[in-house]
Design a protein that fits this description.
Layout: H1 9-30, H2 32-39, H3 46-49, H4 51-74, H5 76-87, H6 89-96, H7 100-129, H8 134-163, H9 168-186, H10 192-200, H11 210-220, H12 222-243, H13 245-251, H14 256-284, H15 287-306, H16 310-338, H17 344-373, H18 375-396, H19 402-412
Helix pairs in contact: 1-7, 1-8, 1-9, 4-5, 4-7, 4-17, 5-7, 5-9, 6-7, 6-9, 7-8, 7-10, 7-17, 8-9, 8-14, 8-16, 11-12, 11-17, 12-16, 12-17, 12-18, 13-14, 14-16, 15-16, 15-18, 16-17, 17-18
Length: 413
């Protein structure tokens, strides 16, 4: 048993594919669900409409925490398997939903599915990759997931335009769940022993209680807590894009197919960009990319709020994807840098608890502001929050990549 992506290439590649299926489960909703809320269920009030984002965010955030704890206690594969079993009813509930309550119930299950499966694939890849190529590992993992979000959002937009909002778009999700379950049962292998191998090379045992891990990751440790707040704001942005962007674009008279293009473009650039930004963080370090990425996202959101045409929104979506690509895999890599292998899975779970709590915060914040002052005002508010988050990282976070940290210390001497 060895550490490293090349040494574990077959299993690592399989897990990249599995995470693409995880992302596809999320992508089935990106284009269609806001339109379904408006056209089929005739919901009024943005806060009420965003209840599905709130339900998803709360359950995914909580499940992330337990996924990390359970991965240490029971192993990675059982947690991944449980996540896929919970995924199976989600597309069926969306297809058959006679009321909005069914949609909320489906998103509760989707949140549990995403928390268990995505968290576990992250932990497993960190286990396999070892300490020096975590940026590359997280770039590949997140790229696969969010490219699948983009492709599925585009595909469901096409299916909705040609075959209606239900059931055709959600049949993709059903196929993803079945395939993910099958691969997990028959092909995925346990990786917990790889974490134990890495831990054996550390001088300290690194044992901490769950409460200590939570406190360090949330507040006490500067890099971990900076990453947690930046992750939360990043997904606050994504919740806004998921729930309100299609409605904002629709107010400008864009067709369903054009809304689908915009809904797919942002995660597509985000996904593809991580092929570059993940390994780049292994060379340049983490802090620089995170700070710059948050500020780029703030500029992109301000542009979404300010412009009114499809070409301008295309540019804004690309810019938002670039900024998110700079941040997303780099935050995960920084958690892996700082956390000891003995409690790393739990630290990833706590980080993802805060990060995906951003969906819930974004649903409430954006929904309330949109109801009171309008859609564009909600986007402006989130743009300001994102800029402030980037400044917090610039002030509080230190460089976490092992090689870059040694170089900086050497230059200081």
């Amino acid at each position: 048993m060895r550490l490293g992506i090349r040494a574990n290439l077959a299993q690592f590649s399989l897990l990249v594919g599995v995470n693409a299926l995880v992302g596809g489960m999320l992508g089935q909703e990106r284009t269609v669900l806001p339109l379904l809320a408006d056209e089929t269920f005739h919901l009024t009030g943005y806060t009420f409409l965003l209840t599905y984002v709130l339900a998803f965010g709360v359950t995914k955030a909580a499940t992330n925490y337990f996924a990390g704890t359970w991965s240490d206690r029971f192993g990675r594969k059982p947690v991944l398997l449980a996540g896929w079993l919970i995924a199976l009813p989600v597309p069926l509930l969306l297809i058959w939903a006679p009321s909005w309550a069914w949609v909320i119930a489906a998103n509760v299950l989707l949140g549990v599915n995403q928390g268990l499966t995505w968290s576990t694939t992250v932990i497993m890849k960190i286990d396999l990759a070892g300490p020096h190529r975590r940026g590359l590992a997280m770039g590949l993992n997140e790229a696969a997931g969010y490219l699948a979000v983009a492709v599925t959002a585009l595909a469901t937009g096409y299916l909705a335009a040609h075959h209606g909002l239900r059931p055709a778009p959600f049949l993709l999700g059903l196929s993803y769940a079945a395939l993910g379950l099958g691969l997990t049962v028959f092909a995925v292998r346990e990786t917990r022993d790889h974490a134990k191998l890495e831990a054996a090379g550390h001088q300290s045992t690194g044992e901490l209680t769950n409460r200590e891990v939570f406190a360090r990751t949330s507040l006490r440790e500067p890099a971990l807590s900076s990453a947690s707040q930046a992750g939360m704001v990043n997904n606050l942005n994504d919740g806004l894009a998921w729930g309100l962007f299609p409605l904002l674009f629709a107010t400008a008279g864009l067709s369903v197919s054009r809304i689908g293009i915009l809904a797919a473009l942002y995660p597509a650039v985000w996904g593809l960009g991580q092929f570059v930004t993940g390994p780049l963080s292994d060379r340049w370090g983490r802090k620089r990319l995170i700070t710059t990425g948050m500020l780029v996202q703030a500029v992109a959101l301000a542009m979404v709020a300010a412009v009114e045409t499809f070409p301008a929104w295309v540019v804004a979506a690309i810019l938002l994807g670039v900024g998110t690509a700079m941040v997303y895999p780099t935050l995960l890599a920084s958690i892996g840098d700082v956390a000891h292998p003995a409690w790393r899975a739990r630290a990833v779970g706590v980080y993802r608890l805060w990060r995906d709590g951003g969906f819930a915060v974004g649903a409430v914040l954006a929904g309330v502001v949109a109801d009171v002052w309008g859609l564009r005002a909600a986007v402006w508010v989130v743009a300001v929050v994102t800029a402030v988050s980037g400044l917090v990282v610039a002030v509080r976070m230190y460089e976490t990549h092992p090689r870059r940290t040694v170089e900086v210390q050497g230059e200081a001497r």
